[in-house]
Design goal:
Blueprint (H helix, E strand, L loop, with lengths): L1 H22 L5 E5 L6 H17 L3 E5 L6 H8 L7 E6 L1 H8 L11 E17 L7 H10 L5 E4 L5 H13 L4 E4 L3 H10 L4 E5 H10 L2 E6 L25 E9 L4 H14 L3 H9 L12 H22 L5
Parallel strand pairs: 1-2, 1-3, 5-6, 5-7
Antiparallel strand pairs: 3-9, 4-7, 4-8, 4-9
Helix pairs in contact: 2-9, 2-10, 4-11
The structure holds D-malate.
D-malate (MLT) binds next to helix 2, helix 6 and helix 7.
């Protein structure tokens, strides 16, 4: 009798879950950004969340959970109920942290379900407005000559800014003093104020400041120059081809989230990435939305797996790990 009752209870739970999945979403959804408000990941997420909210007919709120290069926020979502009401929008740091951190509160490839790729953002090497060098070669010479005093802002080990800074320091063969923040939103505040010297950050956070002349731009890390920053050379043009990186972003849900839910979210993400406001704002900030084919669970899974394998030897060669 007890076995029958247990089977009945399990079936009832399964039914209510499945029924819930069919009616999804029935209430407000939270998307966790694993960095401070006002930074590039926050900017991308709020634009996409606004468009997905219209499509899903439910409010989507953004929760900023910064710290440890994005791994605290990722861990928060890994522990959340797998019901589709807590999501994570994270970037390349999801892949690099798998090597950088020997102890993570989650298993990168087994703690999440995939919704889809969102965008791939180029990075910019920037400096405070009154920094002496006027071009990338000058910056390299200046950094080497002042290696014990030049400060490089980043958003912690595992952040995109950390990865780009690591590539830059490896390329010039000179370790510099790094200053970690909970996101490059607050780091930008200090760069604008002259409290920190340089940063490698996403164009979604630097384009407006560069165009406004409030910070100096030394290079972009994309293969081609950006339409929005036509006078800024690429790192390859400026003699640092090793510093070439694009910051891809993905949308995730906790492991166990029903496939009907992640598929519904993927369809909504695809609609959002075609939203005229999203397309226009992304273009103004030097990036563009992922394609419909990339805004799918399979595409994000493949990208994450490939990027973990790609960055592992590069990180091991640099020897920079989180303790
Ligand atoms: C942010 O949103 O603050 C950035 O993504 C931080 C980083 O990854 O550098």
């Amino acid at each position: 009798m007890r076995k029958f009752a247990a089977a009945l209870a399990a079936a009832a739970t399964l039914y209510s879950f499945a029924a819930g999945a069919q009616a999804y979403p029935e209430r407000t959804i939270t998307v966790v950004v694993p960095f401070s408000a006002g930074g590039p990941t926050d900017t991308v997420t709020r634009l996409v969340a606004e468009a997905m909210s219209k499509d899903l007919g439910q409010q989507i709120i953004v929760e900023n959970v910064g710290g440890a290069g994005g791994t605290l926020g990722a861990g928060r979502v890994a522990q959340a109920d797998p019901d589709g009401y807590t999501l994570l929008l994270h970037h390349i740091g999801m892949a690099t942290s798998a090597t950088l951190y020997r102890k993570l509160a989650y298993d990168t490839l087994n703690s999440f379900e995939y919704v889809g790729l969102v965008t791939e953002v180029p990075m910019t090497i920037v400096g405070r407005k009154d920094l002496e060098p006027t071009d990338l070669k000058g910056l390299v010479d200046y950094a080497k000559a002042n290696k014990d005093t030049v400060t490089v802002a980043n958003a912690g080990i595992g952040a995109a800014s950390h990865l780009c800074g690591m590539l830059f320091m490896s390329a010039i063969g000179t370790p510099l003093v790094t200053v970690p923040y909970k996101g490059t939103g607050p780091a930008m505040t200090d760069l604008l104020g002259g409290q920190v010297d340089i940063m490698c950050d996403q164009s979604t956070n630097t384009t407006k400041q560069i165009q406004g002349g409030t910070i100096k731009a030394y290079a972009v890390t994309s293969a081609e120059r950006l339409d929005v920053l036509p006078d800024v050379s690429t790192t390859t043009e400026a003699g640092l081809p090793e510093v070439q990186v694009g910051i891809w972003h993905g949308l995730y849900a906790p492991k166990g989230t029903p496939a009907e839910v992640t598929e519904r979210l993927s369809k909504s993400l695809q609609v959002a990435l075609k939203d005229p406001n999203v397309v226009a704002r992304f273009a103004e900030l030097g990036t563009k939305p992922s394609s419909e084919a990339d805004a799918t669970p399979a595409a994000l899974k493949a990208r994450l797996e490939g990027e973990i394998a790609r960055w592992k030897p590069i990180i091991e060669a640099a020897g920079q790990y989180a303790d």
